[in-house]
User: What shape does this take?
Amino acid sequence: MKVAENLIHISQQISNACQKVNRTPDEVKLIAVTKYVSIERANEALTAGIINLGENRDDGLLKKWEVLGDKPVWHFIGTLQTRKVKNIIDKVEYIHSLDRISLAEEISKRAVKKMKCLVQVNVSQEESKHGLAPEEVLNFIKDLRPYENISIEGLMTMAPLTDDEEQLRNCFRKLKELRQQIKNCNLDYAPCTELSMGMSNDFEIAIEEGATMIRIGTALVGVAGEEEKR
Assistant: This one.
């Protein structure tokens, strides 16, 4: 299916989820995760009216940047190696995967403007996932004060791949509770207004639990090679 057709369906799902909890759809940023699709498919997303694109590898982002430039708002959503910060720092608006001081130091050193970062939290504490344990987050953010070129815009997590709705809700609720703890500290460098959570399989639940950013790949832009099948 075309991205525009997928977008109609997903926009309705977003609207329905918001209505359930007395939110409005404009409170939720839709990020099209284009890491598995071609530049043409990513451009199709832009043409359909999607503003935010997410990439999880520096090389994938750079290839798309060569063609699309700064037309989209770029989000780096994958694990970011310190040595690769220099490759993407002037091209992205948000980094969703801040999880260690060495990375913060490199981002702050290389930043051409104040970089909007989200701290990645491994709420489910699965070994296969990156991010800080929930109990480490508050002290980690307090330790970021010296890095003047970083603004902590919020928190990000990946929920377990499960059909257990209560398990998903618990994961998203924990992240929201963590965000509130940080907001209560009134740190000028950590407004922490964003909750980046929810993907193709669970974004409606994430919205009901307070997501302000949802990262949708397969359900929106598909997977590699799909555009050739249409």
Remarks:
- Confidence is low (pLDDT under 50) at residues 225-230.
- Strands lie at 29-33, 52-55, 73-76, 94-98, 115-120, 150-156, 194-196, 213-216.
- Residues 122 and 133 are 5 Å apart (CA to CA).
